[in-house]
């Protein structure tokens, strides 16, 4: 049985960040001028982050070295979304590492491999929401909107992390990627909208038992034990600061990256983890509490 705690939030965060980073690496490679340094940064961050996330998933599932037979069952039970998630992570790692090797050999990455990489990145980002939705006992997770929220958050955190590294290692290329300023505004807005929809739908969940748990979950996030993480971590760091930084950059004359941009990138990463942490912990804690 999956143990839902803070550790799984690390898996969800790292998997999403890695998927978003690899997606940016591909888009940067397609941008005019190539942006080879940023592409290489994203191609390294992507598989490393996803591999680290997969490792935490093994730990959280109480599998791996501690119980290899259990992990074997985990990856062969095709009726479980977790199995498909592990397979998706594995395929992503193969594709992303192959892309990295091609780049290290100073060759152009085939367009077909890039397209496959986009599909794999989207699959990994989506899986993080589907994995939670598999547990129907938690109203906050059993919603079709959760995967969309996690996909947008994955893109935001992945783009932000790569941009933060590029701020020091490839700032000239970072300022030449034309779609980034708009993405830095659009992604925080989308995360905020999907989060608002998620909370609104959860709060109006029908059924006597489900309604009690759903209401307790939302109240706990907004004004209860998880309120500080939600408001400071998710809303301020994950949405407000990146949005302000993105708007300032978009409206600036040269659209250059500044210290405010770097602060927005760092805040987006903090907020991305806070989002997954509070969704996992709030749902589990409040649903269990509502049952007593």
Give an overview of the whole structure:
The protein is an all-alpha fold and about 290 residues long. The protein has one domain: Up-down Bundle (Formate dehydrogenase/DMSO reductase fold). Helices cover about 80% and strands about 0% of the residues. It contains eleven helices and no strands. It has helices at about 5-30, 35-60, 70-75, 80-105, 110-135, 145-170, 170-175, 180-205, 210-225, 225-250, 260-290. Helix 1 crosses helix 6. The protein is globular and about 55 Å long. Belongs to the NrfD family. Keywords: Cell membrane, Membrane, Transmembrane, Transmembrane helix. This is Polysulfide reductase NrfD. It comes from Eggerthella guodeyinii. InterPro entries: Electron_transfer_protein, NrfD-like.
CATH topology: Formate dehydrogenase/DMSO reductase fold
- The poorly predicted ranges are 286-292
Query: Major sheet, described briefly?
Result: none
**What's the number of domains?**
1
Structural class: mainly alpha
Quick take:
By secondary structure, this protein is an all-alpha fold. Helix content is 79%, strand content 0%.
Topology summary:
Layout (H helix, E strand, L loop, with lengths): L5 H25 L5 H25 L7 H9 L4 H24 L6 H23 L11 H25 L1 H4 L5 H24 L4 H16 L3 H25 L7 H32 L2
Descriptive key words:
single chain; globular; disordered C terminus; 292 residues; Formate dehydrogenase/DMSO reductase fold; transmembrane helix; mainly alpha; cell membrane; transmembrane
């Amino acid at each position: 049985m999956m143990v839902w705690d803070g550790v799984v939030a690390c898996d969800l965060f790292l998997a999403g960040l890695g998927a978003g980073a690899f997606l940016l690496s591909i888009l940067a490679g397609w941008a005019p001028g190539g942006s080879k340094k940023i592409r290489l940064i994203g191609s390294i961050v992507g598989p490393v982050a996803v591999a680290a996330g997969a490792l935490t998933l093994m730990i959280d599932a109480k599998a791996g070295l501690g119980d290899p037979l259990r992990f074997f069952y985990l990856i062969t039970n095709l009726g479980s979304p977790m199995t498909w998630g592990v397979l998706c992570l594995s395929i992503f790692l193969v594709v992303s590492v192959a892309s990295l090797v091609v780049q290290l050999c100073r060759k152009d990455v085939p367009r077909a491999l890039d397209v496959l990489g986009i599909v794999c990145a989207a699959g990994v980002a989506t899986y993080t929401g589907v994995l939670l939705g598999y547990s129907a006992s938690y109203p906050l997770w059993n919603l079709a909107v959760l995967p969309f929220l996690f996909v947008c958050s994955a893109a935001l955190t992945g783009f932000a992390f790569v941009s933060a590294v590029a701020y020091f290692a490839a700032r000239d290329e970072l300022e030449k990627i034309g779609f980034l300023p708009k993405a830095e505004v659009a992604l925080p807005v989308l995360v905020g909208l999907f989060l608002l929809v998620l909370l609104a739908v959860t709060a109006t969940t029908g059924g006597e038992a489900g309604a009690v748990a759903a209401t307790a979950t939302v109240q706990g996030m907004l004004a209860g034990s998880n309120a500080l993480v939600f408001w400071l971590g998710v809303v301020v760091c994950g949405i407000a600061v990146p949005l302000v930084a993105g708007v300032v950059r978009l409206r600036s004359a040269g659209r250059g990256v500044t210290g405010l941009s770097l602060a927005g990138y760092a805040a987006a990463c903090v907020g991305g983890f806070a989002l997954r942490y509070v969704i996992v912990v709030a749902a589990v804690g409040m649903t269990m509490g509502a049952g007593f």
